[in-house]
Structure formats: C-alpha cells, structure tokens
Amino acid sequence: MLEQLDLTKSMSKEDYKKRMEVLEPELSRLQRECKAAKIPVIIVFEGFGAAGKGYQISRLIHALDPRGFYVHSIGPESTEEMMHPFLWRFWTKLPSTTQMAIFDRSWYRKVLVDRFDGITDEHRLITYYNEINSFERQLAADGNVIIKLFLCIDKKEQKKRFKRLADVQSSSWRVSEDDLRRNKEFDKYKTMNDEMLEYTDKAYAPWTIIESMDRSFATVKIYTAVIEALKAALRRKAEGSAADSDITTVPTPASVEYDDDVLRTSSLQKADLSLALEREEYRAELKRLQNRIADLHGEIYKRRIPVILGFEGWDAGGKGGAIKRLTEKMDPRGYRVHPTASPNDIEKVHHYLWRFWNNVPKDGHIAIFDRTWYGRVMVERIEGFCTREEWQRAYQEINEMEKQFVDHGAIVLKFWLQIDKDEQERRFNERMENPEKQWKITDEDWRNREKWDEYEKAVDEMLVRTSTMAAPWIIVEGNNKYYARIKVLQTVVDAMEKRLEQYTKG
Amino acid sequence: MLEQLDLTKSMSKEDYKKRMEVLEPELSRLQRECKAAKIPVIIVFEGFGAAGKGYQISRLIHALDPRGFYVHSIGPESTEEMMHPFLWRFWTKLPSTTQMAIFDRSWYRKVLVDRFDGITDEHRLITYYNEINSFERQLAADGNVIIKLFLCIDKKEQKKRFKRLADVQSSSWRVSEDDLRRNKEFDKYKTMNDEMLEYTDKAYAPWTIIESMDRSFATVKIYTAVIEALKAALRRKAEGSAADSDITTVPTPASVEYDDDVLRTSSLQKADLSLALEREEYRAELKRLQNRIADLHGEIYKRRIPVILGFEGWDAGGKGGAIKRLTEKMDPRGYRVHPTASPNDIEKVHHYLWRFWNNVPKDGHIAIFDRTWYGRVMVERIEGFCTREEWQRAYQEINEMEKQFVDHGAIVLKFWLQIDKDEQERRFNERMENPEKQWKITDEDWRNREKWDEYEKAVDEMLVRTSTMAAPWIIVEGNNKYYARIKVLQTVVDAMEKRLEQYTKG
User: Fold this and answer.
1) SS3 A484
2) Distance, in angstroms, between B344 CA and closest chain A CA?
3) Who has greater pLDDT, A306 or A389?
C-alpha cells in the first residue's frame, strides 16, 4: 500500500490559507454537532517518526473546544498495564458519547514500534490483529466514529528531520536511539507498517494516508479527513443507523477519496514517462532476459511453483507487445495466456471471480492474464456494469483471492502499463493509418479515451488499495516500448530468482 | 457449542408424517422459486460419522427436481487438486444462479477429518479458517444462500451404529479403520468440530445443529432449516438486497431459531434437577473444597493467573449462596465480587461492555461477577432495553471479549444456576414469609417469573452460542442447594488445578 504512493504532494501558502479559513470553523461546528448528537469520536495518529504527529495534533485541536476532547499519548506499557489484557488500557480510555479521544500512537503500537523493538511476541501477532479488528468493529457498531490517520514521509526526509531536531539543543531530546535505528532500518519498519495497513483497513475504521512531506498539505488533508468522517457519522445518525449497516462488507478507502483531486492519494502521476532505452541496448537486454526466463521457467517447473502474471494498462499501452516478448522463448507446454473479454453466458451466471479461479495455474505452470479480474474496479465500475457496493467490496475480495494464491505458493505480479494521453493518441492514429494494425483499434477505444480522467481516478484507487506485499502492482513506464518490455521481463526474472533463492540457500 | 446440547430430541411417527406432508411440497415449490429468482443455493452436510449424512441427503433430494441440483461427495484431495490452492476444487464446483449444490462433506474436511488424520498442516490452520470465511462471505455477498448443517450424535450412539453397519455384510465396507479411530478418540475429534463451529458460524453462513439421535427428528429439522433459509433468501431478493446488508455485523443462530419449540436447540431441559447431596456429605465436601481453594488461590496469585467467574441463573437460583461459600476462606485481598445492577449514568454513555472491561482483574487476582455482561442477551433483550441488532451481535462480541481474557492467560468460567419453576415459587414464598429474607424479594421478581418461557428461550440460545472451549458455561443443577454449591466449588478447583498442572509438569 505504501509502495505506490506519491508523497511529494504539496500545497501553496495561499491555497492553504484559503482552505483553512473554511475548514477550521467547520470542524469547530461539527464537534459541537457530534456532541449534541451523542456521537463518540476516536482519532488515531500513527505514522513514521518525525512525520509530524505532534505538530498536527496541536494544529487539529486548535479548532476544537478543549472541554470536549482528551489527548492520550501512548507509550510503552506500564507494569500495571502488562498485568491486564492488551486492550484493557484502551477500553478504559474510551470517550463517552459526548467526547472526542485523540490518540498520539495507539493500540497499533503493539504491532508497530513494540514489534520492531522485539517487545511483541511474533507468535501472537495474528491474535493481536484479530483483537484490534474486533475492538474497532465493536466500537463502530456501537456508534463510535473511528478516524485513523497514517502520516507518511520517506527515509531521506525522516533522516533530514531527525538531524535538524538533534542539532538544536532544545529539541535534541525528541530524537531517541530507537528513532535512529528505525530510520536506519526504514524499509524493514515500513514493511511492518504496510502489513498493518493491509490487515486493519476496514470499512468501519478506514485508514487515511496523509502524505506528510509538506506540512501544509498534511494539515489540510487531516482536517478534511476528520470533517468528512464526522459529516458521514452525523448523516448516519440522522438516518437512524447506529453504524454503517454494511459495516464489514464494504472495504474501505485506504485514503478518503474526495472529489477534490488535489487531496487524492495517487500513484500514476509520479511515473517518469521519459524513461527510455535505445534500440541496441534493448535488443541485447531482450536476448539476455529471454534466455534467462527460459532457464528459470524450467526451474520453476521443477520446483512446482505456480506463477500468475496479470497485465492491465491503458488501451494501446503495450500489453500485447510485452506479453509477446515475455513468452517468446518459453516452453509453450508450461504457460498459458488468458485473454479476458466480456464474460460469456456461463460466466455471467457465476461469481465474477469464478472464471479466473477456473484458470488458476497448476503448480509449476505460468498463467498470464491479458486484462484481469481488475476489470471489476475499472471498466465495470465506470460503465456501471456492477453496483457501487459490488466494486467497493471487490478490492477486499481480490486481495483475499490473491493472498490465497500466494499462500499456496504462487508468485503473483500485476503490471500496470502506463502511457500518457498524448502517447495514446499517437498510437491510436498510427493504428488507424496502418492497415495491418487497424484491427487493433475500435470506436470503443476512442470512447474510453474520453473517460481518461475517470479511469485515472479509478486506477489510482485500485493501485493503492490492491498493491499488497504478497501481490504487488508494478507500474511500468510505457511511453517507450523498449523500456517497458525490458522492465516487465526484468521484474519477472527478479521475482523468480528471489523465490528460487530459498531452494539454493536451504 | 456442542458440549451443552440436548441430543435426545425425537419425534413421534404421527408428528413426523404430518409435518413431512407439508414440508416436502413446500421445499419443492421453493426450489422452483429460487431457480426463477436466480438464487444459487449451497447446502453443506457435515457432522460425525454415522450421524446419517448419506441418508439425510437422499431424504432431502426426495423433494427436489433432479435437473436442478448436484450432489458432490468430497473425499481426500486428488494429486491434481493438491497442485492448486485449497479452495480451487470448490470454486470450480459452485452452482450457477439456477442451481443447487449439495456437499456431502465440503471445504470443512480440511479442518476436520484431514486435520484429525494429520494431513492438514496445523501451522496453516488459521489460514485455512480465514480462507473458508472469506470464501463464504464472498459467495453470500454475491447472492448465494449457504446452508450449513451439522449432524450430531454422541459417542455411544456412534459406536452402536458402526457396530450395526459392520455386522451386516452388505454395509460393512461403509465403516473404515479411520471411522473407528475417530470413535475411539471421539472427544478429541469433537473438540476439533467444536472449534470449527466457533470459528465459522457467521451471519452470512450460519450453522444449524441437527440433533440426529432420532432420524425422523433430524429429517424434519433439516427440511425446516433449508426451507427457512430459502424463504429468507427469496424475501431478501424481493426487497432488492443482494445479500444480507448487515451481513457480517449480526452473528448468527448456531441453530436456526424457529418459533417452533420442538425443533429448538436446547440445553436446559436435560439438566437433572433431582441431583442432591445430604447435609453431612455437603459439610464434609464444603470444608475440603474451601481449604483446597484457599491453597490454590495462593498458587494462582504466585503464578499471576487472573481468574474471572461469572454467575447467572434464575432469580432465587442460589447465586448469592454459592458465591458466599466460594469466597468464605479466600484471602480478601486477592478477590473482588462485582454485583451487576442496571447501568449508572456514566456507564450508560459508554459501550455496554465498558464497565466490565473496567473490572477486568489484574493478573493473579480473582473477579467474581454476580450477574454479568450476559444481561445484554437476557433482560435487555426481553425487556427491549436494546435493539434486536444489538443483542444479536452481542453473542459474537461477548465471545470475542472472553477470548481476549483467555488469550491473555485468564481462567474464565460461567455458571448458570438452574432451578425449575416450582422450586422458584417455593423459594419466593419462603422469602416472603421469612422477615430476614424479605428484602431479597421484590415485585419485579414476580413479574420476571411471568416471563419464564421467554427467558428460557433466551437462555437456551445464550448457552449454545456462548459456551466456547475457551470460556465454557457450566449448568449447575440447583434445586438442591448443597449439590449446587459443591458443584460450583469443585468446578473452580478443577479448573485451577488443570491450569496449574502445566507449571508442575514443565
């Protein structure tokens, strides 16, 4: 989930000021309304060290009536707390129906900092996750609004901030040895955070990712996230449903998705489409990689490792070309390409994932899907072929399916072939003009093109919500076909080699 | 869940015949209606060997149009199936929207027979459970009706049936070595089944327990369960909601609860209220147990084991007397009795479990609750102090809370003090007549008494749905106070000794 984020989002001073002038009084008003409506509110701040939790909490309470909230700073467990069930210290800190409780770190400490520091028993990790999910579900069902904010910066920025803090005498106490160790092993700690986000992002208590490289942007996004959540809670209360009735069926925005494009969590925009390869280099690399894949394919077969490769991307993004280069030197008995079109009559009377389950590769075989189950959250979403509830819950369903493949032992990779709008137009026109390629272009392609912005929004959401550690999305910068094909092949080679390592090692 | 069941339920020939004359054509009609409404139906038969799965399946399809269903017998995985993810062989067997799939054993094989036989990797058990729950949730969300029937007999009956089958040449092949081994280790296998029921009893795919000692009773209950489920599905479809919208919030009847008292799963009726102790024996036992408890209390404290004891039962059932005897020789610094009355003003503005979380004992201490969190599913349910949704989801919430206590290391026991209606009247009158006991009886007690039948139904449901392996209910036969008190003390002693064993052993 964190891998694909564009953290560089920022906001100009003017825009910030203008927005805050609206947001502050609005939050203030909503706090009063929630109190009157007897809605208990829980706000959780988690994220990387030096991402600005402290600053943002004080910035948030700025707008709040101090008689209506508590801030709880959650440190290591005391001896007394250790002598009770893990969640006891949080149950006893819960807000009443007229209060707001703000947590600076929270129950997530158990599966993050305390885990990293070796305090948490790894064997009990799943139990703690289950307890956390059940805790939040019980509170949400009882009418609590649970707002979970994850403040995100990158390793370099964190190091810079730690240094700045440490250099000033008055703030040097704020940087601990542990902080520095977590910076040094940033990737390991990030993986723990990523896993946590995957396991605990629920409809009744969704995470909102706060891109925190730019402080003003983060403040505005936090205010907006809190405001949207409170508004939704008031609406539900007015409608008489204590909590979301479809509370656990609809999985959730990893990030609150507003119509406001500025605040939207995105991945596509950061793709560097200028990346390119020269023809000579391409041919050499292609040869090398195709030979390597042929060898690896044999190993994969011998070790009985199933491989599932999904290809998605803009029309004319280069899926076909990449798949062709990928399979060119593979033994045809060991792989199959499944083109995914609209479902046929038999497929239509089954679950939308049924046809893909039917094509799960046998151990040792490779299944390549040209377009995939992700149609559900792209074309079906945009064209209205399924209901809002259906595509919303599909993210979780798809994540679960892919996890089952991975748990069974499969390598699962998903490629998004990214091109820009101009490049697509160029390719469309080329197809129109070339008699041999004309079959590849239809009126529908041009119609889809008109919905580019809608698709971009759906794709951004899909990438954030379904790029899991088990089955990552790879964004392939595709304006240059040579570059794109090599990246696809190299990624497949790397994944196979990594998996096979465990056999040579042990 | 299985521990507390009354399996002896039976049905007379006439009653059976009369009911089946109505049920068969009704099922037949509902099959057609579901087909027309495009509702896919999945019926799962699980349960103990020789409980009658085969017979009941053929009895069920009697009423069905053979063009509309398939029966799948699920044996051990084939080599081909082993080379795919676990659920692949079930995904490919799913019914279309106009079909019914009947499974004779199912995906539950993985966590039952195959687990018992050592084929299933114990380390992956939780993963399999998660996969099963996600599988069923995805199907239910897509409109599938999932009817899960658990056919239950006891060890003795099973042995008898195996013997009968083995003795006749034509049926002796039906009893395998494995069957006999599972009979021999019935309790171990039963525990696995019990755990399975606890983990997979979900609102979107509830289990119905079929008491199968009497074949006719079982047939009628199966027909009724299937019919009720199909009716509910048709109703939902007509209302336009693809599946239960509150699909995972409301946990479910372990058994379908009809208004029909005959079919209702029950526990209270089997309590043998004639059990009694003479005064002499009582006094000797009491002394012995109280001394033992005093010793154990010290050990418990030293080992830092928290103990949670809950007392529920009919008014005048003897809770107070039992608690008094239990604590008489305990060190008062090490235990606390929490009487539970109506919630006060502060408690009212918090989650209903909040006040009990606040009284979770510290490690090494004993907390005794005179009335408990179970008020939610008894008095609050019956008096309408909470909504139907609230008490329905409380079973799962309570199970989760108790599991957290146990996972933290606590001993959790729940006592139900059972007396019959006549005995209650006798005790009420005694209280009225005895000036020293008059304070113990109020008009409310008499009013509650009028709702005896309603309470009995609620208690029966509570006992089945919340008697977990981690935190069992103990039904205390209470007409004779001596017997009841000794049973309570002995149960506490046994539980403490069992827990302490692990320290002396290892």
Assistant:
1) helix
2) 13
3) A306
Cβ-Cβ contacts under 8 Å, B410 against chain A: 85
Q: Which residues of chain B have pLDDT under 70?
A: 241-259, 505-506
Residue type, B365: H
**Which structure tokens are listed for A359?**
């094509």
Tokens of residue B109, six digits: 């094989």
**What number of H helices and E strands is found in chain B?**
20, 10
Point out which residues pair with A151 in neighbouring strands. A47, A210
Digit-coded pLDDT (tens) for B126-171 = 889 989 999 999 999 999 999 999 999 999 999 999 999 988 888 8
CA distance B179 to B184: 9
> A232: which 2 tokens?
């939704």
State which residue of chain B sits closest to A98, comparing Cα positions. B349
Segment A85-112 mean pLDDT: 96
Complex ipTM value: 0.85
Of A301, A303, A306, give the one whose Cα is nearest residue A363.
A306
Average pLDDT of A235-259? 54
A84, B404: Cβ pair inside 8 Å?
Answer: no
Q: Which residues of A touch B407 (CB under 8 A)?
A: 85, 124, 127, 131
The predicted pLDDT at position B257 comes to 53
Using an 8 Å Cβ cutoff, are B273 and B418 in contact? Answer: yes
Residue B413: name the closest of B471, B482, B349, B476 by CA. Answer: B471
Is the CB of residue B313 less than 8 Å from the CB of residue B476?
A: yes
Instruction: Please name the amino acid found at residue B431.
Output: R
Cα–Cα–Cα angle for B351, B356, B358, rounded to 5 degrees:
95
Cα–Cα dist A413/A369, whole Å: 11
Specify the pLDDT at position B243: 47
